[in-house]
Design a protein that fits this description.
- The structure is a single chain.
- The chain is of the alpha+beta class.
- It has a single domain, classed as Porin.
- Helix content is 19%, strand content 53%.
- The protein contains two helices and nine strands; from the N terminus they run ααβββββββββ.
- Strands 1, 2, 3, 4, 5, 6, 7, 8 and 9 form a nine-stranded antiparallel sheet that branches.
- The longest helix has 32 residues, at 2-33.
- The N and C termini lie far apart (77 Å).
């Protein structure tokens, strides 16, 4: 009887020892699989890998802009400045959609279509629809992004019964905050040049507009 009790006791102790060893082994495996972050580690160190190179070849963006434009410098066929351009109020609206493809973490190429409109003293409206190819460079500092863009293409104009299709050139600079991996939001400033060269050289005109827009970009 005493021997049986001793064997049972040894069996229980052996089982408890095995269970303790098993639990300890499981805890070690979990610690290796899921290491804990050092709570005292600087935040910058934890984000350093994410901000190192957020762009590379093949990255793409789709951009939406909305804002206002201001008629600025206008010149006639003699190169003299037109001081009375008849826009009232001297502010219009603008918006655009654009697509960009990154060939390098700094360089991108894309296309853009937009619309601009301004009211005149006669309560009529000038419409411009610029369609062009865009290219530029972008510099990134952590979650702040600074693209510089040049756009060139054609721009149909429409005012009353008068229509014209001509060349346009636009340059702009933006600052964006990368809200998350999919979206960034920012502010854009741009300068646009719209030369008109109709058949009658006496009607040649060069128009310049300054624009400020709010911008959202989708990254994919």
């Amino acid at each position: 009887m005493k021997k049986a009790r001793a064997l049972i006791l040894l069996a229980v102790l052996f089982w408890l020892f095995n269970q303790t060893a098993f639990v300890y082994s499981q805890e070690e495996q979990e610690e290796e699989a899921y290491p804990e972050y050092d709570e005292e580690a600087p935040i910058d160190d934890l984000w350093e890998g994410y901000y190192a190179d957020p762009y590379g070849r093949g990255d793409q963006t789709f951009t939406i802009t909305l804002g206002v434009i201001f008629p600025t410098l206008f010149y006639d066929n003699n190169g003299e400045r037109i001081t009375n351009h008849n826009f009232n109020p001297p502010v219009g609206g603008t918006g655009s959609l654009s697509y960009n493809y990154f060939f390098h973490k700094y360089y991108f190429l894309g296309i853009e279509i937009g619309v601009k409109f301004n009211y005149t003293l006669g309560e009529n409206t000038l419409f411009i629809i610029p369609i062009g190819v865009r290219t530029g460079v972008q510099f990134v500092y952590r979650r702040i992004e600074f693209p510089i863009v040049i756009v060139a293409g054609v721009s149909p104009h429409r005012y009353l019964n008068y229509s014209y299709v001509g060349f346009f050139l636009k340059g702009g600079a933006s600052v964006f905050f990368r809200f998350n991996p999919d979206w960034s939001f920012g502010l854009n400033a741009e300068w646009s040049w719209y030369p008109q060269r109709p058949r009658d050289p006496a009607r040649n005109t060069d128009g310049n507009f300054f624009g400020v827009t709010l911008t959202a970009r989708y990254h994919f």
